Amino acid sequence: MKENRLVIALSILVAVLFIMSLWVGRNPLAIWQAAQALDSESVGSIILMEIRLPRALIALFAGATLGLCGAAMQGLLRNPLASPDLIGSSSGAALCAVIVLYFGFTTSASLPLLPVAGMVGALLATLLVFILAGRDSSISTLILAGVAINTLATAGMALLLNLAPSPYAMRELVLWTMGDLTDRSMDDFYLMLPFTVLGWALLIGVGRQLSALTLGESTAQTLGINPQRLRWRIFLAVALAVGATVSTTGVIGFIGLIIPHLLRPWVGYDAGRLLGVSALGGAALLLAADIGVRLIPTEMPLKVGVLTAIVGAPFFLHLILSARKQHL
Q1: Whole-model pTM?
Q2: Residue range 136-170, pLDDT digits in tens
Q3: How many CB atoms lie within 10 A of CB 200?
């Protein structure tokens, strides 16, 4: 009953924030009037359909992806500090996407190459983490391997930035890595959508398996669950969904870490039931952050990835301090 109320509340919150995302900006938009004038090619309808709507849709799906994949990774690794950021998926996707941007392979003829590169990068980074950590590695070893791959990918991006052929190209690459939703079109959303939905589809039905996995792999196997198959299924899902998301938005961190933590007590610490509510929570957080960057008065537009990091870093420190207190 408590979970149902949470789902309803989060759904209403996401709907309200989505509508606000269409309306809020430097200059508020009369949504109803703009929608009525869609055929007239008025300024309001153009702003609604070509600027605000793609931005809101990408924030909705990207936030849901990050929240969902964060909850899946935490359930799989049975560690509340796990997320696509910490095991290298996001940084691997970002590195491959930056390589595509650096060499200028994003012309109209090769437009799908950007999300494909992101997904390949996410999958390769995740594979490297588990090869480096070993098959029967502990959770702490996996996280350390993820930190190593993260560092390697970050170094690769720094190298490309250092070798950028012009200050303008360097600026574009730097701004992209900060995570942003501005200047996105419906074409970007349509390109991201199928890969994202495919990643979501792979996570359908894994909730019960993740719940059983909390009892240990041996117990889960007695219940008919194959931990190895489950692991690769989630890896592939994260690679598809996070890779497409990062390729579209750049690196937006901490959502996959924060949201499962905030919502876990509301679902009775059940890893399986956490998936759906984390998707809603992630969508709400990214929509709210995107609204926030429009309202914060800055001379240069604030990047949404910067805002989520400002919010997420103190929360991460709070988790560390809480863990220390529990071990004292």
Answers
A1: 0.88
A2: 666 677 778 888 898 999 899 889 888 888 777 77
A3: 19
Tell me the helices (H) and strands (E) count for the chain, helix number first: 15, 0
CATH number of the domain located at residue range(s) 2-327 in this protein: 1.10.3470.10
Relative orientation angle of helices 227-249 and 53-77, to the nearest 10 degrees: 150
d(CA 315, CA 313): 5
Cα separation, 175 vs 193, whole angstroms: 23
- 3-state SS class at 86: coil
| Residue ranges covered by each domain of the chain | 2-327
Helix (H, G, I), strand (E, B) or coil at 325: helix
- Cα gap 268→210, rounded to integer Å: 14
- How confident is the model over 68-114, as pLDDT tens digits? 999 999 998 887 777 887 778 888 988 998 888 888 765 545 456 77
Instruction: Name the token pair of 82.
Output: 């796990």
Q: What are the phi and psi torsion angles at 210 (to 5°)?
A: -65, -40
Measured CA to CA, the distance from residue 15 to residue 119 in angstroms comes to 29
The least confident of 36-40, 144-148, 252-256 is: 36-40
> Please, what sign has the CA dihedral across residues 310, 75, 131, 113?
negative
